[in-house]
Amino acid sequence: AQSVTQLGSHVSVSEGALVLLRCNYSSSVPPYLFWYVQYPNQGLQLLLKYTSAATLVKGINGFEAEFKKSETSFHLTKPSAHMSDAAEYFCAVTRGGGSQGNLIFGKGTKLSVKP
Amino acid sequence: NAGVTQTPKFRVLKTGQSMTLLCAQDMNHEYMYWYRQDPGMGLRLIHYSVGEGTTAKGEVPDGYNVSRLKKQNFLLGLESAAPSQTSVYFCASRRQGALSTLFFGSGTQLSVL
Predict the structure, then answer these.
(1) A75: which strand partners?
(2) Tens of pLDDT along A34-69?
(3) SS3 category, A60
(4) Is the CB of B106 less than 8 angstroms away from the CB of A101?
(5) CA separation for the pair B6, B25 (Å, rounded)
(6) Taking a contact as any Cβ pair under 8 Å apart, which residues of chain B between 20 and 79 contact chain A?
(7) Which of A54, B47, B61, B106 is 20 to 30 A off residue B55, Cα-Cα?
(8) Taking a C-beta distance cutoff of 8 angstroms, is the pair A36, A48 a contact?
(9) B32: which chain A residues are within 8 Å (Cβ-Cβ)?
(10) CB B93 within 8 A of CB B35
(11) CA pair distance A81, A63, nearest whole angstrom
C-alpha cells in the first residue's frame, strides 16, 4: 500500500531563506508523487508532480522537488522564501501503479514566513 | 472558468439533521472526489466516482452517502449529522489517468452542534 509521511507539521523561515519541506513515501510499485499547496480559505492547487521522466521536477512559483529512490524521498525546496509562500503544503502519492490512482495525501506542513 | 464549485460554503447543523453538499464541475472530468480536512489529519477520502452513475467508498465513508446522476455533479449527503462530522469538505475532479491534475473546489465549512 502507498503512503506518505511529511516531517514537521509546522516550518518557519525568514523571508529570503531556503525553504525545505520534507516528504517520504512508501510504495510497493514505482510511485507518482505530487506536491499541492493550500492558501488560507482556499482549495488545494498543484505545485508540481513527479512522472518518472526526470528526478528533478520544477513547479510553479519557484518551487522544485527531487525524487530520490534510494531515500524514498520527494522533498520540496525553494531557494528564497517570499511572504506569499505562507501556506500549507501537502505531499501526495497515487494508490497503485496503474492508470487509475486515487491520491493519498500526507498530513500537511504549514509554512510560515517571517519578515 | 468556474472549475469546481461547491455549495454551500458554510453550514451549521444540529445533531441528527440531514443535508446535502453539491459539487459541480465544468471541465468534463470523469473522476470526482469528496474529501474531508481536519486539523493535523490532512485530507481523507470519503467517496469517489469514476463516471456517471458509479460511486465507490474511500477511507472514511461511514455516515455519508453520494450520488453521481449527472457527469458534472457529485452530491455528498449526511443523513443524520454527528459532531464528529464537523469538518471542512472539499470536492475535487480530474480527467482519466494517474498523472492528471486534481482540481479542488474552495471547500464547505460544516459545523455540527
Answers:
(1) A66
(2) 999 999 888 999 999 998 778 899 999 999 999 998
(3) helix
(4) no
(5) 9
(6) 33, 40-45, 48, 50, 58
(7) B106
(8) no
(9) none
(10) no
(11) 10
Which cell numbers in the block locate residue B56? 465507490
Interface contact flag, A99 B98, Cβ < 8 Å: yes
Residue A77 CA: distances (Å) to CA of A26, A55, A72, A80, B4: 20, 14, 16, 9, 29
Question: pLDDT exceeding 70 applies to what percent of chain A?
Answer: 94
CB contact under 8 A, A107 and B33: no
Of the candidates A49, A99, A96, A97, which has an alpha carbon nearest to the alpha carbon of residue A74? A49
C-alpha cell at A84: 506569499
Q: Which three cell numbers stand for residue B101?
A: 491534475
Half-sphere exposure of B112 (CA within 13 A, CB side): 17
Grid cell of B19 as nine digits: 443535508
Of the candidates A43, A51, A97, the beta carbon closest to that of B105 is on A43
Instruction: Tell me the residue length of chain B.
Output: 113
| Alpha-carbon distance B104 to nearest alpha carbon in chain A (angstroms) | 5
